[in-house]
Amino acid sequence: MQRKYSLFVPLTLSLAASLLQAQTNMPKQSLKTNGQLIYQKQKNADSLRELFSEGNFYGRLRSNTFYFAYDNDDATHDTQLISGLGASLVFKSAQYNGFDTIVGLYGSRAFFNESNDAVGTLKAGKDMLSRFDYANTGSKSMGVIGQANIGYTYSKTKLIVGRQLVETFYTKSNDTKMIPNTFDGLVIDSKNIANTHLKLAYLTKQKLRDHTDAHAVLMVGDANSTSSLKPQWSENDDGAMHKGLTYTALKAAGKPTDAPLIVLDAQNSSINNLKINFSSYVVPELLSQVMTELNYKIPLKGFSITPGLRYIEQFDNGAGAVGGASITTTGLGGYKDAHSLD
To answer: What phi and psi values does residue 90 have, to the nearest 5 degrees?
Structure first.
């Protein structure tokens, strides 16, 4: 058995400045433990000019270092060291007649020795550069537009169109490295129903943290989708991605290679101490899933206990026949039906 030693050293510095340099006792942004930023409440603008002049810039500097060490290196266990520096600048406008906009620029620079640490074997540190870009251009840097969207708010419902962070049970920004995971599409976020939060998302593209271009939500690139080197890194190459859903396999089966991700997310707290969560997603002609969760808070003296129950079920809408039951290309023997994702 291999023993592994790992070290992760993050450093984050957040800066925020108003266009008008307004003084306030409230912080303009705060950072949650999962890397998600909480921004100061937007101001209301009285003109199109104030939509921008009353907006805020939010800056952030980051440094990450990842070190993995094994007792003995072999084909699947490789000692690695990679560091990186990153920065972001996000502009969040004021709100004018219900409209607002967000634009976010993100950059990252990785530092590692390719002769000792092959880019293809990098683990958590791989998100500090684009492996696909490095294989084709040698670049260890990334510069992307991570957010670019327009929002419209009416009552307690907001519609957002463009590239954005989408936080639901099934979609996360995972902003723990340099660049967040983002989606291109339409999101409706509503709290109009009492004690209920609803979110509906129609997402046409995804851009993983280590990509400079948006890509398909549920497709693995191959030699028929691009003529570039390392085509398997060109589309969705996340570790949890089903490796059998390649461009060629989907095409041969008559399935879409650019299918959208449709997500419905809901939370309700109408019953005292009970929180009900529901979430579902559909990738048309391929896959769908539903999740229901109940959490009940039991107040006690000085503390509380919250037991929870979660149920998840997945439905195969055609993806199993294309890529098989296993998310890898091996290990099908343990399944009742090796060609079903139910």
So the answer is: -115, 130
Which is nearest to 283 in space by CA: 310, 339, 322, 248?
322
C-alpha span between 109 and 131 (Å, rounded): 12
How far apart CA 36 and CA 126 sit, in angstroms, is 20
CA atoms of 125 and 66, how far apart (whole Å): 6
Residues in contact with 239: Cβ distance below 8 Å, sequence separation at least 6, in sequence order: none
| Cβ-contact 111, 129 below 8 angstroms | no
pLDDT in tens, 160-185: 999 999 999 999 999 999 999 999 99
If DSSP codes are grouped into helix, strand and coil, which group holds residue 232?
Answer: helix
DSSP 65-108: EEEEEESS--SS---EEEEEEEEEEEEE--BBTTEEEEEEEEEE
CA atoms of 122 and 139, how far apart (whole Å): 15
The answer to whether residues 191 and 156 touch, using CB atoms and an 8 Å cutoff, is yes
User: What are the angstrom distances between the C-alpha of 307 and each of 196, 270, 273, 296, 299?
Assistant: 21, 18, 11, 6, 12
Q: Torsions phi, psi of 247, nearest 5?
A: -55, -45
- For the segment 50-60, what is each residue's pLDDT rounded down to a tens digit? 999 999 999 99
